[in-house]
TrEMBL record, chains A, B:
InterPro entries: Alpha/beta_knot_MTases, MRM3-like_sub_bind, Ribosomal_eL30-like_sf, rRNA_Methyltransferase, SpoU_MeTrfase, tRNA_m1G_MTases_N. This is TrmH family RNA methyltransferase. SUPFAM superfamilies: alpha/beta knot, L30e-like. The keyword Methyltransferase applies. Signal peptide: none annotated. GO terms for biological process: methylation; RNA processing.
Amino acid sequence: MITSTANQQIKNLVQLQKKGKARKDQDVFIAEGLKMYQEAPQDKIVRTYISESFLKNPENSSIKGLKDAEVLEDRIFDYVSDTKTPQGIMCIVRQRHDKIEDILKEEKPLIMILENLQDPGNLGTIIRTAEGAGVTGIIMSSQTVDIYNPKTIRSTMGSVYRVPCVRSEDIYADIDKIKEAGVRVYAAHLKGKSSYTEEYYSEGTAFLIGNEGNGLSREMAEKADKYILIPMCGRVESLNAAVASTILMFEARRQRN
Amino acid sequence: MITSTANQQIKNLVQLQKKGKARKDQDVFIAEGLKMYQEAPQDKIVRTYISESFLKNPENSSIKGLKDAEVLEDRIFDYVSDTKTPQGIMCIVRQRHDKIEDILKEEKPLIMILENLQDPGNLGTIIRTAEGAGVTGIIMSSQTVDIYNPKTIRSTMGSVYRVPCVRSEDIYADIDKIKEAGVRVYAAHLKGKSSYTEEYYSEGTAFLIGNEGNGLSREMAEKADKYILIPMCGRVESLNAAVASTILMFEARRQRN
């Protein structure tokens, strides 16, 4: 049992929780909580950590794969946890390496392209909602918040294991690739003349979603084949990025069903 | 200029930021940031506070209504602010007192009924999205997170001033009132047999949305006229409460347009 914060593994867990660079260098991330542990692909789990209380709780005796888990004194587990009320289980999981080519292999893909999203919860919620809406994959500009941020991971509720996500080094070139594959690219934009409900998304479709504060950059918006508008009542000028994404993804799903 | 955290007004601001009870007793809440200040109904603003830097910034000289604003030393403003990067302006605003009867006065109302939502950001996002979707009003069970929580206020982006919101003391009796007014009540529920896209929401419509962790309680779900399902792909079991609300509100809006 690990009983000290000076332990090398504990120091490393803290680094992995806090630093995107440490996660990138080691090519892993931390998934916390029972659901995140149980949904993780077994062959991607590097190491599992449980608290002493978690180990001693008879309700947990039927959980699989824990025989090699490292046990941490409760206060040590709390120390490395990113949550206020830790469930007592976390694991180090290998990062995915999805490629745009894999996403474009699908027939009539449905793709979300995110520009510089900054809120980890928003990104996680979009990934979770995307799985629910049957999105083929998500492409993010290089300045988007780290998908492996603990808050993002938590908000995905496990969808991070299943939705192909690509961090693009050259988003403009990648959008060109997507267009060359016959996918029509729509930008949710205040300049849109037609409502999002007036277009057809049954063929290959991609939606461009902009940053929370500034919306889409001019350069990104210009890559779109068409601007669409989400008509709004009242004095609302814009919607939360995850909300706008939800509306578009589920309209595409509705049309495809 | 206020230069001490021992100042009585500063002590009160801290109470109002942190304690729902203080907000309730004084019947006010705090709205932070320039947008929240500018969109506040003038007759509801009790007092405005700005930082010394905000006062001295020539860009702010054209902002109206600031001649009686209290000026706070920057470090005092930071001390009372609920945000990491304070904009240097906040105001105390009187709470709204909407009634269910006001919401039901509207022809063919579109109503959201929220049961015990716990995440302030979720509640705020729902209020903001509701204004955009043209929702008539929001009714919340008594255990729902405080609408005047600073995080909720911020997430509404000003919609809190405009969307009628009622905290119900007896949610079951209030749902009966809504039904007696001819409004059809739908519950988003896993037991739903028809998809949400197969129903018609052009007449008076209310949607029941459950708590983030547990969904709708059995008692609440039983109040519904009909269960509807948001069909989901992949292994997603449920959606974020704000996301589920968004899908239903904008489907109703789509049908009503």
